[in-house]
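User: Please run a holo structure prediction.
Assistant: Happy to. Please share the sequence and the ligand.
User: Here you go; the ligand is D-malate.
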Amino acid sequence: MATVNPFYANLPGNYLFAEIARRVKEYTVGHPDNKLIRLGIGDVTQPLVPAVIAALEKAVREQADAATFMGYGPEQGYAFLRETVASACYAGLGIGADDIFISDGAKCDIGNFQELFAADARVAITDPVYPVYADSNVMAGRTGALGDDGRFRGLVYLPCTAANGFVPELPKERVDIIYLCYPNNPTGTVLTKAQLAEWVKYARENDSVIFFDAAYEAFITSADVPHSIYEIDGARDVAVEFRSYSKSAGFTGLRCGYAVVPPGVAGVGPDGKRVALRDMWNRRQTTKYNGCPYIVQRAAEAVHTAEGRKQCQAVIDIYLKNAALIREAFLGLGLTVAGGVDAPYVWVTLPGGMDSWSFFDALLNRAEIVGTPGAGFGPSGEGYFRLTGFGNPAQTVEAVDRLKKFQM
Ligand code: MLT
């Protein structure tokens, strides 16, 4: 038999959201009449907006006519969408259409991008963290085994807890790659422009590359919170940015996102020479990826029209209102809460050092609400719990009612 990739053996048993789905399934089998409210995985519940549906319908009809039918598209995405993204999202930030690589979502891009780096690259992640950052590096053999403290020996952890206001400190050692996600998943917290500038400065001084996950930028409501890392001077030489239509336009099922890779971001090749990551990513994508479907890219383009923007904003407002309700419910219970203002996620500190999987089970069994245990996002997530604002509004109101009555 062929030997398999040994590094998969270092992964935790199940991907977090697969484990949650397993527990929920077990519960529903035992309780067929359940009234479960799912506020666990950050999946959207509102339908695609009319502007997107109209673009999809038109693009589908084009496929029925030989004159407008589309076969393989460019691996980097169609020029119409790359140009639209550059002008709609990055005007004045020095980002051009050639820097935009359209894909089937930010999860794949951010999971794949580490492939461009050597096996011994030193990686820093915030803790708690979106599990894809850690797990994709585990699969690549970059992390070593999981220690008894729940940390991979080869990863640098940057704790984000109530003690530091959920703001990570700069690494004490030099690292090659830093994963940052702002607005943050799972804590729902943000970095100000000045705080993000510290990271860009660190990356420039240490020749590091920042993987900036901006999947939730559409939820920012506060002033002075950057929507893109390229709002920070110098970031174009050290940062790659990932964005998604999943949460901003309801594409979790449709699938579309993009990576922004400016030509100045580089690493060093085996001959000691500078290698632009944009060229490497282009090589990687043209080899392993055949492009996001044409009809989906037309749908994404419609998000940036005046109508599309307005309609998507109305949906984002629904999710932010849900998040505010959840936030207020927890505050009303006397608990400490982060997030839910510039992000769809509400991050609550559990009372009395309660462990997060026990709280998950209690909330599931006694209130029929599905959330996400903080420990699933990393060791510093223990003692915290996440609920999402992506629920259906009526169900969120019902969940809030149940939360208010919940005996901790
Ligand atoms: C989450 O719940 O953290 C997200 O939905 C996961 C994702 O975007 O893949």
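The longest strand covers residues 239-244.
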